[in-house]
Design brief:
With 385 residues, the chain is α+β, with helices and mostly antiparallel strands. The protein has ten helices and 16 strands. 41% of the residues are buried.
Length: 385
């Protein structure tokens, strides 16, 4: 799936904007605070119906505006598709795929898969295990869409079991009800973990780096996991929550036998995260037949020349990707004929002729008083969605 056009209305710093990415690599260049990251966030929002930068999505609506609207056009071998997102803080989002309303864009085949690298995403490696588990969940759903429902069912079963534990602790429930929820938790947990464990264990990082999936449970069947849960009922009742199962799994990234989050430099952690996203992209391309859209924000700033060249070679090998930089020269090969170039200056998006031959001039404007990044906060990790 290739994104051909994005239109933006009242999103972050943009009163209106239009972007036409190339089918391969697109470089977005502009000074710090010009709004480069805002465009990547808008693309992610249009593909998924949510922000990749903040849990408080009110921040995504341009200051002084009541609502924001995004429309994305994409195409694949089966035809053209249109995705639209309307968001007014305090109201349900209006999501449409090919003109039909949908509850979740992530369940629609009409929208592109997307992965994003942001500078503060280093928390995926440095932060709590819950961030990495959320990342794994999104990758699993992207690899095998049918398992997204399994994840929701597992979460529902887990919430019910935890609620029952709380009721028992408060004297309002009976332990006799737990085995049924243990069975439901086990059934969904095994289905969720299944095949992904093998794929995750096979993903590797260069330079002696190793990626490993670390399951909390060693159970291979639902009955075995249910038995493990039953053995831990007393400790769960003491803690007040379910402390065992796939929701406690983790992802380990090591270099030279040491955990990156504890012993890696900032540069090593950054490379580890980038390698993880690229490995997932390759796996998705093999499994789904097409690589997801890849959004890379400020990825070149901490890479030396050879690593920049290597990264661009990987990006140009296949799939659609957008890279931001403060200067065009920071991206090797940015002047090549097959690369689309976008400049952001004086509040406008200035687009050169794309590889498909579409000559573009100024196509978007940000309000003069609001060209900054407009307050993007730290956010939980976003995997391929």
């Amino acid at each position: 799936m290739i994104v051909t056009r994005l239109t933006v209305r009242d999103f972050r710093s943009y009163e209106s904007a239009e972007l036409r990415p190339g089918p391969g690599l697109t470089v977005i260049a502009g000074r710090n605070g010009a709004g480069k990251t805002n465009l990547l966030e808008a693309l992610y929002f249009a593909c998924t119906g949510r922000s990749c930068r903040t849990a408080n999505e009110r921040e995504a609506v341009r200051f002084g505006a009541a609502l924001t609207r995004l429309e994305l056009e994409a195409e694949n071998a089966h035809g053209r598709h249109t995705i639209s997102v309307g968001f007014q803080p305090g109201e349900p989002k209006h999501l449409r795929a090919d003109g039909a309303p949908v509850d979740r864009l992530t369940d629609s085949d009409a929208r592109p898969l997307v992965a994003v690298f942001l500078p503060d995403r280093l928390e995926l490696i440095l932060g709590a295990p819950a961030l990495r588990r959320a990342h794994l969940d999104q990758v699993v759903a992207a690899l095998w869409p049918a398992r997204a429902g399994t994840r929701r069912e597992y979460s529902a079963a887990l919430a019910q079991r935890n609620a029952l534990i709380a009721a028992i602790r408060a004297g309002r429930g009976s332990r006799g009800s737990l085995p049924a929820w243990d069975a439901a938790l086990a059934r969904h947990g095994i289905a969720l973990r299944g095949r992904f464990a093998t794929h995750a264990a096979d993903l590797g990082l260069d330079g002696g780096a190793v990626l490993a999936y670390r399951p909390r449970s060693q159970a291979e069947t639902a009955d075995a996991l249910a038995a493990e849960l039953a053995e831990r009922t007393d400790s769960d009742l003491e803690r007040g929550f379910t402390g065992h199962g796939p929701h406690r799994d983790d992802l380990s990234l090591k270099r030279d036998g040491r955990e990156l989050r504890s012993y890696g430099s900032r540069g090593q952690v950054r490379l580890g995260l980038l390698a993880l996203l690229l490995a997932e992209r390759e796996e998705l391309a093999a499994e789904r037949g097409a690589a997801p859209l890849l959004l890379l924000d400020d990825v070149m700033s901490e890479l030396d020349g050879p690593r920049r060249t290597r990264l661009v070679d990987v990006l140009c090998a296949g799939g659609q990707s957008l890279v931001t930089a403060t200067e065009l020269g920071h991206v090797p090969g940015a002047e090549d004929p097959g690369v689309a170039r976008v400049a952001i200056a004086e509040g406008h998006v200035l687009q050169a002729a794309t590889p498909a031959g579409r000559a573009e001039g100024p196509v978007a404007g940000a309000t003069d008083g609001d060209r900054s990044q407009q307050g993007a906060g730290r956010t939980k990790a976003q995997a391929t969605s």
